[in-house]
UniProtKB/TrEMBL annotation, chain A:
SUPFAM superfamilies in UniProt: MetI-like
Protein family according to the UniProt entry: Belongs to the binding-protein-dependent transport system permease family.
First-listed, main subcellular location of the protein, grouped into a coarse class: membrane
Alphabetical list of InterPro entries matching this protein: ABC_transp_perm/SBD, MetI-like, MetI-like_sf
Organism: Streptomyces purpureus
Domain spans labelled ABC transmembrane type-1: 27-208
Spans through the membrane: 31-53, 60-83, 89-112, 155-178, 190-215
Topology versus the membrane: Multi-pass membrane protein
Name of the protein in question: ABC transmembrane type-1 domain-containing protein
Automatic annotation (TrEMBL), chain B:
Family: Belongs to the binding-protein-dependent transport system permease family.
Name of the protein in its database record: ABC transmembrane type-1 domain-containing protein
CDD domains reported for this sequence: TM_PBP2
Organism: Streptomyces purpureus
Annotated ABC transmembrane type-1 domain residues: 26-205
This protein's record includes keyword Membrane: yes
Keyword DNA-binding in record: no
Amino acid sequence: MGVVSEAWGWLATGANWSGDGGVWHRLGEHLYVSGVALAVACAVALPLGLFLGHRGRGGALAINVSNVGRAVPVFAVLALFMVSPLRNAGYLPTIVALVLFAVPPLLTNAYVGMREVDRAVVEAARGMGMSGGQLFRKVELPLAQPLVMTGLRSAAVQVVATATIAAMVGQGGLGRIITAGFNTYNTPQVVAGALLVAVLALLVEAVLVGVGRLLGPGRPAPVREDRGPLRKTV
Amino acid sequence: MSCLATNDWICGEYLRTRSQELTDATLQHVGITVVSVLIGLVVAVPLALIARARPRFAGPVLGLTTVLYTVPSLAMFSLLLPLFGLSAALVVTGLVMYSLTILVRNTLAGLQAVPAEAREAARGMGYGPARLLWEVELPLALPALMAGIRMATVSTIALTTVGSIVGRGGLGNLIEDALPSFFKAQVLTASVLCVLLAVVADLLLLGLQRLLTPWTRIRVAGGAG
């Protein structure tokens, strides 16, 4: 248990939180790249997934993009960016990688959420004379919302985890505390950094579960074994 | 001028001169993946059986595995550092935790989807609990279990690369070694091999699933005809 108390000591040392390599600065970097990437991914994937689901087209694309995403290592993608000219573009390589890994869960869940809306309800709405747009806004979107939120949660956790791996290719974020600890054989610092990263990921998950419950129609999104939250690439 | 000197993305000379290094890294990658998924399976099936027999345990078991799953891999490996040091055991332990989540869920879902009539019929024929499990329930849960094994294997292959943080990441080690010198051919080759490994493993497991569950194909063929 010696290491745990030493890690606690590292976290309790004010000097470790300030300055360019300090926790606050690294956390700021982490939240910045994660936030930008999640916003871009949502702007791309949600309209596309919802539209494909509404029209009932492109299912193979929307589902398979998740399976392909699972097979590609985040570390490899980040490394490929870092040996390309993109490495001179500041936070851009990290953000692009984060977007690439956030799109699949968003796209798949938005599509599946729309497709799994009860066909009888859709037919009834059409029978009442609803237009395509009304059907989308008033029937399909509210019913698809739990799965869309599941996708958002899954993407957010994915993004926070991917931003950690960015440290392994020399980019910023909380992972740098871990890699710096490895480089200086400072195990307490490694453990302290890992605790910070784990707490951040669990917080993001918990907050989004809470938001989903507040917005949701009273029932939690079903847990999907074949797609959705269970996609781990980082 | 050789493609190694000009640092090309694609380089035949790299493949020729470093074939031993590539083979070793691939073998380490496959070894870590196979051991992790097998241990995950050995732990997950009993956990799923306990969760099914005692619904009181189902919530905590699924909850705990979900929490483990949410922890990013770099943090997971780092938290295990004081226990295992810089070793392959550290990487395997971390990967087992992740594969557990997928395997417990899929096994449990597969077992719960066994039709009650099938269970009743077997009991009526005098099957005891062990024989019921082995000859009726597990075979019927096999498609769900195999789907879980495929998913766990593919993501474990991707996650193994992060093990390079402790020098046990298979092909990830090659990627990490190539970064300081911006060695494009090595990063690209190791990355492509990772994806190829995942695709090949997925196809092999799909083939195994078909061999083990011939009845699912007969039913599909019968339904189509």
